[in-house]
Design a protein that fits this description.
little secondary structure
Length: 52
């Protein structure tokens, strides 16, 4: 995947998956840049069984 010259927030997401309360999970991201200015963030969202 490539994102070139974004001028605003750019979001990439995966399919939702079932997670188990009390279990540990690892999330990671790799961002390769050239002459970048600003921040790179990894955002994680959780949903309940009603998709809220």
């Amino acid at each position: 995947m490539g994102i070139t010259n974004p001028t605003a927030w750019t979001i990439v997401r995966s399919d939702k998956f079932v997670y188990n309360v009390g279990e540990s999970y690892i999330a990671s991201a790799y961002v390769k840049t050239s002459n970048a200015v600003g921040l790179a963030l990894l955002k994680i969202e959780f949903f309940d069984n009603k998709n809220n």
